[in-house]
């Protein structure tokens, strides 16, 4: 194997979790099973994009969709074993961001608009 090539499995894993919003959805679901509207509100993501990303993550075996035949029908999303196995990765990412990432300052309020 060439020293400069990236492991194909690592590359695929990075593509999956770094897809727009995927990592944040996984992080949100680490808190436990949630309904679509809860995830949508927590992340401030469009319903269309959330639906698309949940389908992608379900296809990859990271998220599972449970339908409860109640009235009205209740649908919850949760992480599979494969998804929960990402928890240590996300904990380490949280530690890294706490130590190394500075948030941008909020823009100063314009005194003329007060």
TrEMBL record:
Gene3D superfamilies: Winged helix-like DNA-binding domain superfamily/Winged helix DNA-binding domain. InterPro entries: ArsR-like_HTH, HTH_HxlR, WH-like_DNA-bd_sf, WH_DNA-bd_sf. The keyword Cell wall biogenesis/degradation does not apply. It holds the Pfam family HxlR. Keywords: DNA-binding, Transcription, Transcription regulation. One of its GO terms (molecular function) is DNA binding. Transmembrane segments: none annotated. Residues 7-105 form the HTH hxlR-type domain. SUPFAM superfamilies: Winged helix' DNA-binding domain. The keyword Lipid biosynthesis does not apply. PROSITE patterns: HTH_HXLR. This is HxlR family transcriptional regulator. It comes from Paenibacillus tyrfis.
């Amino acid at each position: 194997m060439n020293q400069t090539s990236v492991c194909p499995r690592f590359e695929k894993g990075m593509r999956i979790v770094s897809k727009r919003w995927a990592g944040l959805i996984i992080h949100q679901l680490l808190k436990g099973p949630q309904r679509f509207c809860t995830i949508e509100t927590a992340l401030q993501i469009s319903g269309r994009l959330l639906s698309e990303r949940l389908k992608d993550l379900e296809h990859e075996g990271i998220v599972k969709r449970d339908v409860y035949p109640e009235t009205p029908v209740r649908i919850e999303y949760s992480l599979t074993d494969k998804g929960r196995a990402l928890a240590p990765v996300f904990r380490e990412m949280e530690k890294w961001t706490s130590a190394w990432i500075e948030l941008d300052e909020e823009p100063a309020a314009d005194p003329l608009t007060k």
